[in-house]
Amino acid sequence: MTFILIAAVILALIAAVYFVMTLYPAFGARASKAERAAISRSPQYQQGKFVYPFPVAGIENPRGGGLSILKDFVKGNPNSRPKTPLLPQPLLTGSIQQNRETKATWFGHSAVLLEIEGVTLFLDPMLGRTPSPFPAIGGKRYSRQLPIELADLPPIDAVLLSHDHYDHLDYGTIRQLQQKASMFIVPLGVGAHLKRWGISGERIREFDWWDEITLAGLTLTSAPARHFSGRSLLDRNTTLWCSWIIQGANAKIFFSGDSGYGPHFAEIGQKYGPFDLTLMECGQYDLRWSDIHMMPEQTVQAQIDLQGKLMIPIHWGAFTLAMHDWTDPVERVLRAAKEHGLRLATPRIGEPVHVGAETYPSSPWWR
């Protein structure tokens, strides 16, 4: 009788988890059978999963084992987040789309509002309170407000997504941008999440690595990254991840998304460099999972590989997803950039960086 009771409880828990993951919209959705058939033709798709060309040790299979990571997370780090909430620089509605100049405005973490030659793009616009399917659970954003409320944004020509992790693709944010953005440009498989959230297929474009699209005079190219994907226990690497190359008539931008260091940076640099501005991940790292998140010094080497002229470090300043001090990413990447003579912009959240300008934000505002 005891065995039957335990088995019934286990089955009930499994059923409950299954129904929550199936019915709760924030988890997204899997591609349809027809979509999966098309996805399977990708050179990156092998044995039912997307893969990077070289072995990748990540969170699920870290160097040194997962037990040490668990112990460090339990122990915690008192400096892993700011002592007081960050105050973004306000972004006025009237300052957006004033002219055809190229400028990037960082919203914290990897969210960047990019205005380039009259086109407005929102890159990985995760603007929710916490990178979790359940907003009440998880580490909160370092700032209590955004540079501008989503309702006050002007129309967006396109949202570009690098992958489907919660700190890059947020259900609540996408729902709010549904009426703001004309198009959603995403890696293979990610469109299924958006369709479940009410965005029509006509407004979604899915891309494999090296695919291109022309948008209002720009050329957008999906490029490789060394990472992984998934929003639940059952969909690991069933969608693709990528970086983005954004080319206009007078400016060329690179957006890294999430990536460990790898030979793809040199390949991108050789094919498309030099870049006027790069938006490069440099936070939430650990040696045990450096294959999927670069160490700051590797970020600088990637910048060299890409032939980047000016870099804005991203993937920091909003959430605590690793054990390092919250300011370590910017301090380390700043030090490494200085050693190599590279130009690094360090804008406050909400402070625009004008591409091609003689000056750019460089104050150590986090100290």
Automatic annotation (TrEMBL):
It comes from the Bacteria. Gene3D superfamilies: Ribonuclease Z/Hydroxyacylglutathione hydrolase-like. SUPFAM superfamilies: Metallo-hydrolase/oxidoreductase. InterPro entries: Metallo-B-lactamas, RibonucZ/Hydroxyglut_hydro. It catalyses: 3',5'-cyclic UMP + H2O = UMP + H(+); 3',5'-cyclic CMP + H2O = CMP + H(+). Residues 138-316 form the Metallo-beta-lactamase domain. Pfam families: Lactamase_B_2 (PF12706). Counteracts the endogenous Pycsar antiviral defense system. Phosphodiesterase that enables metal-dependent hydrolysis of host cyclic nucleotide Pycsar defense signals such as cCMP and cUMP. This is MBL fold metallo-hydrolase. It comes from Paenibacillus tianjinensis. The lineage of its organism: Bacteria, Bacillati, Bacillota, Bacilli, Bacillales.
